[in-house]
Specification:
One of its GO terms (molecular function) is DNA binding. InterPro entries: Arm-DNA-bind_5, CB, DNA_brk_join_enz, Integrase-like_cat_sf, Integrase_catalytic, Integrase_recombinase_N, SAM-like_dom, Tyrosine_recombinase_XerCD. With 404 residues, this protein is mainly alpha-helical. The chain has 15 helices and eight strands. The chain has a three-stranded antiparallel β-sheet with strand order 1-2-3, with helices on one face. The chain has a three-stranded antiparallel β-sheet with strand order 6-7-8, with no helix packed on it. Strands 4-5 form a two-stranded antiparallel ribbon. Helix 3 crosses helix 6.
Length: 404
């Protein structure tokens, strides 16, 4: 059965009680609709002639638009039939929408940027903007059709990223993931045919290089705990680091947002900034002296435990994120001098507290329990994370061979 197109008025009113004008595409008794962006009152619709009644103030313009769109779609359907192509009504609708759309890659990239700003995903805003700028610099234009981002484009783009901005292999992989994300959004909205998708089997495969995660040993952490004679700023940085470590490596952004009201029933309760998951952990005894050190500065039950965010408007998420990021740099600067005083040669940063917990946990804790402590969505993620630290079995295997 050949596809057919017809002008229609959809019977689903908007808030004003007006109904949308549309083109209905039908094949094998299945239909899909292309909406034209105009609504009219039901009294202005001629259901027999399938047109807007002359009583409507814009009847002539609307009827001309309907005929033009119907002619365009019918021409497209004739072309499909002449090429013996078999498409469902939905595929035809999506193809037509893609052909009629002037949106290119950067249009979708800018929409994505607005979306993450509106959803307050501030950690991604600057990063995704940088990825977008790399693509624009390479393409030398922001008028970039999706079809132009093919395998050759991406291969040359990867070479460019290595040579000019001199990005690491991991960052290059992240840029490709960003491009893939924008492609998938456009495909889901029917603005690009999947045949133009440059990723997957036989095409561009995104490969992440293995990363090297380093955590402190038990002895090194004991050296930190025993360290005395520090400046006030160094003591504070040590406290924040140990607080994070004792609680399974809480990320610094979450540590600085902990309030006194989050601590009750000998537990800490907080929401992870990264994935909005709720966490509840029993307070280890080693955490309590750290909390006691900050009790004198407690202004109210809902005050922050640590001082970094005390003067910030709690409703200003953007400023809180920026302040936390900046304070993380200051803490890491203090940790560098602390490491020297403790005789630690490894790079000591706030994030290393999470790696250190993983390093010491090793094979001691079942992976399912570690998943809960880390709040990973998948146990596979936890297994991959712990694989960087669980070396006891391989060490034993190695020694069983060479110790003869």
């Amino acid at each position: 059965m050949n596809s057919k197109a017809a002008i229609t008025l959809r019977r689903k009113a908007n808030q004003k009680g007006e109904f949308p004008l549309a083109i209905r595409i039908t094949k094998n008794r299945k239909s899909s609709y292309i909406y034209l962006g105009h609504h009219i009152d039901l009294k202005y619709w001629d259901s027999k002639k399938c047109c807007v009644k002359t009583a409507h103030p814009n009847a002539t313009r609307l009827n001309n638009l309907l005929l033009i769109k119907l002619t365009e779609i019918n021409k497209y359907l004739i072309d499909l039939q002449s090429e013996n192509k078999d498409f469902t009504p939905l595929q035809i609708k999506n193809d037509i929408a893609f052909i009629k759309s002037n949106k290119n890659f950067f249009d979708f990239a800018n929409e994505h940027q607005e979306e993450i700003v509106n959803t307050k995903q501030f950690s991604r805003v600057a990063v995704d903007k940088a990825y977008k700028n790399h693509i624009a610099s390479f393409a030398k234009t922001e008028d970039l059709p999706f079809q132009d981002i093919n395998e050759d484009f991406l291969k040359n783009f990867m070479i460019y990223l290595k040579k000019k901005p001199k990005l690491s292999d991991r960052t290059i992989a992240n840029v490709l993931v960003y491009i893939r994300l924008i492609f998938n959004k456009a495909i889901r909205k029917g603005m690009i045919d999947r045949k133009f998708y440059p990723f997957g089997t036989g095409k561009i495969k995104i490969k992440f290089p293995e990363s090297h995660k380093v955590g402190l040993s038990v002895q090194e952490i004991q050296n930190l705990e025993k360290l005395r004679g520090l400046t006030e700023k160094e003591t504070h940085a040590k406290n924040v680091w140990l607080f994070s470590f004792y609680l399974a490596g809480i990320r610094v952004g979450d540590v600085l947002k902990v309030r006194w009201s989050d601590i009750y029933d000998n537990r800490i309760h907080y929401t992870m900034n990264k994935n909005s998951k709720l966490v509840s952990l029993e307070l280890p005894e080693k955490v309590k002296p750290i909390l006691n050190a900050y009790l004198a500065d407690k202004r109210s039950p809902h005050d922050y435990v640590f001082p970094e965010l005390k003067e910030i408007d709690r409703a200003d998420d953007k400023t809180i994120y920026a302040k936390s990021k900046n304070e993380n740099k200051h803490l890491n600067k203090q940790l560098k001098t602390i490491a020297e005083k403790a005789g630690i040669t490894k790079k000591l940063t706030m994030h290393i507290s999470r790696h250190s917990f993983g390093n010491i946990a090793g094979d001691k804790i079942p992976v399912q329990m570690l998943q809960q402590l880390y709040r990973h969505s998948s146990v596979t993620t936890t297994m991959m994370y712990q694989s960087y630290f669980a070396s006891a079995a391989t060490d034993k295997a190695l020694n069983s061979v060479v110790n003869f």
